């Protein structure tokens, strides 16, 4: 499929999506969000894909929702279209997604990155929720996912002041899983994605589902869900293979079943 605002390529079991509106720092307009969701749909449906990577350019992962497109929106249009809801598709993906972030990762861009499972940041990355400076607040999950990621104090600081956080602060705050030199960003993200894709896909998907459950439920319910999912893994060939391979001191050959 020919996209206008993103590019896609597969690298073995990795589906790589690159946001591509360089003139506006990858601002997320309706077209880009639609294409991004379509690309994720495609990789989710492709049994050869075990992990996705979403990235931007050296200058910007994405500098937020497209302010030009949004500026004349009326309340009734925003409400009727359920504006902002489409991007939730990314957070609902069942296969894992790694965000590889360099440069600006602001507003809706940060909200997109936070819907991914792992954020890897280049040293140049700058995170922020500057919506307050535009007379709005985050509307694609930022007020919910940022406090869960970095705690209330830092999240309030970011959302109410609109300030940016550099990669080192994002790392020490727990927003990103690792920081790498800018030139190594994509290679590192692909390596992480390959490591994930080496494992049994259904088991990876269940592990992702279980971790995400922890944000939606109580501890005892979450532990119960985890245990049930854990039990179910003994019905898979990949559990038998993984443990047999360990005992035989060989590498496992997972078959995703
Ligand atoms: N939307 C549209 N265009 C943008 C955006 C954006 N978010 N960000 C940058 N651009 C454009 C600029 O207008 C400029 O275009 P032009 O060359 O035609 O003037 C071009 O990109 C380059 O930008 P700058 O010249 O400003 O580049 P600088 O390097 O000087 O500055 C910054 C980079 C600091 C990133 C600056 O561009 C900036 O502050 N951008 C806006 C950041 C922002 O406020 N983001 C939040 C947007 S709101 C949002 O994301 C809400 C999401 C929730 C919506 C859901 C609703 C329900």
From TrEMBL:
GO biological process: fatty acid beta-oxidation
One Pfam family this sequence matches: ECH_1
Family matches, as InterPro entries: ClpP/crotonase-like_dom_sf (IPR029045), Enoyl-CoA_hyd/isom_CS (IPR018376), Enoyl-CoA_hydra/iso (IPR001753), Enoyl-CoA_hydra_C (IPR014748)
PROSITE patterns: ENOYL_COA_HYDRATASE
Top-level taxonomic group: Bacteria
Catalytic activity: a 4-saturated-(3S)-3-hydroxyacyl-CoA = a (3E)-enoyl-CoA + H2O; a (3S)-3-hydroxyacyl-CoA = a (2E)-enoyl-CoA + H2O
Matches recorded under SUPFAM superfamilies: ClpP/crotonase
NCBIfam families: PRK05862.1
Protein name: enoyl-CoA hydratase
Species per Swiss-Prot/TrEMBL record: Bauldia litoralis
